[in-house]
Amino acid sequence: MTDRPPVPTEVPPAAPPQVQPIPEQNNLVLPINVNRDNFPTANNLNDILYNLNFNRILRIIRDRIETANLNNLNYVRILNADILNTAINVINNLKLFLINNGYQIILLEDANNISIGFKIIW
Fold it and tell me: Does 26 reside within a domain?
């Protein structure tokens, strides 16, 4: 006779289903109808404006990618004139975001070695 553990006669209760938390409302948008209750704080306003600029450049890139696709290209150029008046930290964070998502960034310079933009390759 071998020593076997006893066979359970009862099935243990199933674990309760995992409840996914409901994501909080995104407060990083400027309200359309402004009042004293929903006007952003100075810090919140900085975050809102940062995200607006970041997403604006992403939309420019998306539009350029669609055009590049029609021309069978695997790159787009973003010139400094396209992102004029955008804070440098937004541009640098966008480049880092693209690199972290598998894109290659090549800086573009004119004949005098002055930066004129960057190239995104996928």
Answer: no
Domain that holds residue 103: 42-121
* pLDDT over threshold 60, residue 1: no
* Counted domains in the chain: 1
Q: For the chain, give percent helix, strand, coil, nearest 5.
A: 40, 15, 50
The three-state (H, E, C) secondary structure of the chain, written as one string: CCCCCCCCCCCCCCCCCCCCCCCCCCCCCCCCCCCCCCCCCHHHHHHHHHHHHHHHHHHHHHHHHHHHHHCCCCEEEEEHHHHCCCCHHHHHHHHHHHHHCCCEEEEEECCCCCEEEEEEEC
- 22-73 pLDDT per residue, tens: 444 455 678 888 888 889 999 899 999 999 999 999 999 999 999 999 999 9
d(CA 122, CA 68): 11
What whole-number distance in Å separates Cα of residue 98 and Cα of residue 7?
A: 56
Q: Are 101 and 88 in contact (CB under 8 A)?
A: no
